[in-house]
């Protein structure tokens, strides 16, 4: 280890000759980044791994099928020495030194003139980490530092706002079913960059506590709406904050487009000329049953699943759900917003041919610490909901998948 730390630099290799000696695992790992950098890559090696060979076949590198020979590095700007022959590596490294070609050596980093940093990428930034500790290199530590930084930037636990590209506007973010780990990476990042967050009751509310003090958090349920409808009041709040030049996140439960009124908000924003991005989320319709051990499909049991809203009863004239047709399906029925009406929904399904013994599960507050599963059948679910005091939010699953045991047998 030299007593001075390495000097970090970004090489711009477009069209410049880079020589790689050896076509094994090291080359296989390093070549993609060199290709991405646009380098004119010459691989010198009698053999190569199938992946390296595929790069040559695709014309991404030029492969000279022979061992290293003196003179190979003469015109190179940069070299990667990684053959399995120590003598060849030493000779090539001496040639690189003589021609002042920066060179990385896979077998002896101390005798190399350049080191490859542990790199990762996040949103247009390359994170490159090098050991500078005079006690010696620690590649696993540098990789761990790289991972920590890249992961932190991706999941929003490290906040680095975009000053160049940051534009005012609204992001409709699907926050997932409630567990804060179940938001998407993009959603979490946008949340970390927000000036204003307008949040629903459902979704990952724990994440709100982590936001910096300057972020204005607005509870959508508490927006005063006077003579407006609640949704119009929310739309207006989104528009007003975005017009003040702020980054606004509309944090929703599950996915914005699954009974989430995402498109209504998108239309209102478009009408007001506000830029809007929509970030999908993990919908409770699939994840909440899953969290309670229920797959919505299973080979040989259910080849379809249907997600319906149960917020109005089957005989309500506002209902758009064709309950008689649903009763004829053999697959899984997933009902959201159906706790209050499940008794009448079950009666309707049975009246149109569904077996009263069909298993039903109600999963309340799925993926949160308060998750609770209550089982019933179509014949008993109306009473069970009352007797067990099941409360919204709950996802109701109807079908044979409910009875699947963890070992794949029916329970
Ligand atoms: C207005 S809908 C919104 C659905 C959401 N956009 C989604 O994709 O999950 C609200 C309903 O979703 C269901 N729901 C959402 N999160 C839930 C959770 N963590 N546990 C149980 N049910 C949930 C309940 O049926 C609730 O009444």
UniProtKB/TrEMBL annotation:
Tetrapyrrole methylase domain location: 170-381
Pathway membership: Porphyrin-containing compound metabolism; siroheme biosynthesis; sirohydrochlorin from precorrin-2: step 1/1
InterPro entries in the record: 4pyrrol_Mease (IPR000878), 4pyrrol_Methylase_sf (IPR035996), 4pyrrole_Mease_sub1 (IPR014777), 4pyrrole_Mease_sub2 (IPR014776), CobA/CysG_C (IPR006366), NAD(P)-bd_dom_sf (IPR036291), Siro_Cobalamin_biosynth (IPR050161), Sirohaem_synth (IPR012409)
Substrates-to-products reaction catalysed: precorrin-2 + NAD(+) = sirohydrochlorin + NADH + 2 H(+)
Pfam families referenced in this protein's UniProt entry, alphabetically: NAD_binding_7, TP_methylase
Keyword RNA-binding belongs to the record: no
Parts of the chain that traverse the membrane: none
EC code(s) of this entry: 2.1.1.107
Keyword annotations from UniProtKB, A to Z: Cobalamin biosynthesis, Lyase, Methyltransferase, Multifunctional enzyme, NAD, Oxidoreductase, Porphyrin biosynthesis, S-adenosyl-L-methionine, Transferase
Main EC class the enzyme belongs to: transferase
GO biological process, one term: methylation
Single Gene Ontology MF annotation: uroporphyrin-III C-methyltransferase activity
Family matches, as PROSITE patterns: SUMT_2 (PS00840)
Similarity annotation: Belongs to the precorrin methyltransferase family.
Matches recorded under PANTHER family: S-ADENOSYL-L-METHIONINE-DEPENDENT UROPORPHYRINOGEN III METHYLTRANSFERASE, CHLOROPLASTIC, SIROHEME SYNTHASE-RELATED
Name the record gives this protein: Uroporphyrinogen-III C-methyltransferase
Gene label: cobA
């Amino acid at each position: 280890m030299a007593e001075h730390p390495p000097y970090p630099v970004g090489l711009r290799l477009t069209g410049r000759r880079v020589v790689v000696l050896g076509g094994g695992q090291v080359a296989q790992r390093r070549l993609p980044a060199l290709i991405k950098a646009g380098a004119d890559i010459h691989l010198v090696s009698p053999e190569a791994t199938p992946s390296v060979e595929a790069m040559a076949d695709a014309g991404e590198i030029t492969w000279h099928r022979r061992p290293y020979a003196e003179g190979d590095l003469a015109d190179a700007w940069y070299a990667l020495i990684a053959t399995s022959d120590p003598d060849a590596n030493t000779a090539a490294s001496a040639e690189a030194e003589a021609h002042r070609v920066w060179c990385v050596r896979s077998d002896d980093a101390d005798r190399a003139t350049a080191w490859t940093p542990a790199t990762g990428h996040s949103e247009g930034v390359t994170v490159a980490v090098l050991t500078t500790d005079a006690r010696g290199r620690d590649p696993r530590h540098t990789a761990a530092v790289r991972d920590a930084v890249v992961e932190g930037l991706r999941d929003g636990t490290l906040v680095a706002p975009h000053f160049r590209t940051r534009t005012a506007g609204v992001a409709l973010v699907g926050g997932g079913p409630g567990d804060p780990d179940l938001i998407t990476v993009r959603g979490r990042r946008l949340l970390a960059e927000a000036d204003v967050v307008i949040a629903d009751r459902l979704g990952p509310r724990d994440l709100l506590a982590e936001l910096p003090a300057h972020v204005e958090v607005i509870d959508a349920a508490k927006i005063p709406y006077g003579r407006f409808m609640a949704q119009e009041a929310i739309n207006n709040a989104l528009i007003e904050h975005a017009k003040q030049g702020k980054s606004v996140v509309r944090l929703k439960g599950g996915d914005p487009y699954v009974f989430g009124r995402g498109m209504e908000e998108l239309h209102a924003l478009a009408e007001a000329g506000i830029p809007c991005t929509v970030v999908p989320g993990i919908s409770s319709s699939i994840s909440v049953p899953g969290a309670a051990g229920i797959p919505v499909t299973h080979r040989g049991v259910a080849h379809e699943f249907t997600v319906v809203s149960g917020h109005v009863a089957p005989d309500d004239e506002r209902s758009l759900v064709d309950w008689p047709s649903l009763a004829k399906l053999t697959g899984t029925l997933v009902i959201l917003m159906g706790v209050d009406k499940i008794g009448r929904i079950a009666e309707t399904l049975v009246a149109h041919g569904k077996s009263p013994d069909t298993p039903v599960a109600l999963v309340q507050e799925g993926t949160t610490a308060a998750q609770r599963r209550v089982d019933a059948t179509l014949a008993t679910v109306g009473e069970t909901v009352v007797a067990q005091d099941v409360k919204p939010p709950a996802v109701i699953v109807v079908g044979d998948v409910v009875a699947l045991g963890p070992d794949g047998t029916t329970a």
